[in-house]
Amino acid sequence: MKRLVYIFIGLITSTFVYASVSHTLDDTFFEKEFQQIIRFEMLHFNDENSLDEKSIETLDAAIVKIKELQKSSKIKVTLVGHAYKAADYYPQKMQNNLGYVNESSKNDDNRSENYVKAIEKKLIDKGIDRSSLYIYDKEGQLPAFTDEIPESGSLSNRVMLSIYVLKPEDIDSDRDGVFDRYDRCPGTPRGSKVDKNGCPIDSDHDGVLDYKDKCPDTPPKGVLVDSHGCPLDSDHDGVVDYKDKCENTPEGIRVDPFGCPLKQTLKLHFKSNSAKILKNSYGEIQKFAEFLKKNPGYKVKITGHTDSIGKAVVNMQLSLQRAKSVKKALVAEGIDASRIVTAGRGELDPIESNRTAEGRKANRRIEIKLFH
């Protein structure tokens, strides 16, 4: 009884490695690590050297699969051609199976190479990358069937097409510590902190990624920040909004750590032992009046101070009278009197020593403090 002789994949693979090589397939091919190997049914050629109908369908399916894989993976496509070569005696059959070529083989028209080239051309014509094709023709070294059946010759005329999908290389293109195949945010700037998906992190949760954040660890959560991740300072007083207890401080006003205006000194001169403001001080009065007009939301407390020369009671009265003189001058400049509060502190709050002329001069002063 006639029997079909099936060729096992292991025999085919070992033959790839040890047999002679045509074109681009060489002994190093199988040194690569493959993620997947896809083998298709044999592509059979008939007596007219054309693919049969079933083989055409198989080839079309292979082309679709190759194009699909080329979009996302690095692949190699092998085309291994076979052609029938008759052997009259068993010793010659053994020679063929062991890969030797007898004299009659040398005179053959090398149909297996033609079969391979025909498939190669079809693949290239369909847009398959030529560089991914690895070609090998085995001539008559590995027949698919015995010589004992009439159809043996035509059944051995075939091309085996296989797809080898290479394992992705562990490449980290943006050097963020996450391999490209896992990286959901490719192109991360060098040195950026990233999460397990390769995406830049926002450690302080202020909406600005760390690599752009010039103010890391912005506390507390929910604080409004600018494009650089820094807390806003809307009134530009040097105190960020979330710490500022006195919003909308006028520009140029010195403030405390909470953003509230500090006491400031008006550089005014008075007649000795008198509450009368000297003419050379009116420029300062007018300047401050203009400020109050531009900032109508503020009120002002005016406090008079003296040095320690003379009686304390007299100094207390004098300091209050001088504060009232300043108020009167501001009202004359158009400031509503209801916005001005006056007080006298006499010699109680010196800022310098009263033992020196310079110190006493500094202590004789008018202080102003803004408030809402």
How is this structure best described in words?
The termini are far apart. The protein folds into three domains: 158 residues, 60s Ribosomal Protein L30, Chain: A; 30 residues, no CATH class; 108 residues, 60s Ribosomal Protein L30, Chain: A (2-Layer Sandwich). Helix 8 links the parallel strand 7 and strand 8. The strands form two sheets. Strands 1, 2, 3, 4 and 5 form a five-stranded mixed β-sheet that branches. A four-stranded mixed β-sheet has the order 6-9-7-8. With 372 residues, it is α+β, with helices and mostly antiparallel strands. It contains nine helices and nine strands.
Number of domains: 3
Q: Could you tell me the strand content as a percent range?
A: 5-15%
Low-confidence region ranges = 1-23, 88-92, 98-109, 142-147
Biggest sheet, in brief? Answer: 5 strands, mixed
CATH homologous superfamily label of the largest domain: OmpA-like domain
Which key terms come to mind for this protein?
alpha+beta, 9 helices, 14% strand, 372 residues, four-stranded mixed sheet, 60s Ribosomal Protein L30, Chain: A
Task: Kindly summarize this structure in a few lines.
InterPro entries: Bact_OuterMem_StrucFunc, OMP_bac, OmpA-like, OmpA-like_sf, Thrombospondin_3-like_rpt, TSP_type-3_rpt. GO terms for molecular function: calcium ion binding. The chain folds into 3 domains: 9-166, OmpA-like domain (60s Ribosomal Protein L30, Chain: A, 2-Layer Sandwich); 172-201, no CATH class; 264-371, 60s Ribosomal Protein L30, Chain: A (2-Layer Sandwich), CATH 3.30.1330.60.
